[in-house]
Amino acid sequence: MALMSQLFGDEIYDPFLSMVNKCPVLNTPTDWKETPEAHVFISDLPGLKKEEVNVEVDDEKVLKIYGERKEEKDDKNDKWHRVERCRGKFRRSFALPENAKTDGVKASMENGVLVVTVPKQEVKKPEKKMIQIEG
Predict the structure, then answer these.
(1) Cβ neighbours of residue 22 under 8 Å, at least 6 residues apart?
(2) Which residues form the SHSP domain (predicted)?
(3) Dist. CA 61–CA 104, nearest whole Å
(4) 13-42 burial, b for 16+ CB within 10 Å, e for fewer?
(5) Separation of first and last alpha carbons in the chain
(6) Which CATH code is given to the segment(s) 29-71+86-119?
(7) 5-14, 41-50, 98-107: which range is least confident on average?
């Protein structure tokens, strides 16, 4: 670690954090929990308004959360010393399980936290049918 510190200055160099800062998808952390009634997705989207975020479910039961963090408008006289917040488009996709009821999906957003609730439905187990062996 001392060598990395020497190579990259006094700051501690962490390759994963470096990648996170460059990749919008990794900067959209999302938790997925299952309750008895639903699948709940919780995404941190700090600084975004609900109008800047899209949530959709396609026919193949894939939940998609996407949007864009816009570039900030600068004054030409501004001098940036550090840029660490991720900008640009982001997209997360989750293949929903068979018991997801896609026509009842709800989404809400408060204080930069998106909560998507996908209700569950009972899935019929295929019936076993015994076949008589002839001969």
Answers:
(1) 86
(2) 21-135
(3) 12
(4) eeeeeeebeeebeebbebeeeeeeebbebe
(5) 75
(6) 2.60.40.790
(7) 5-14
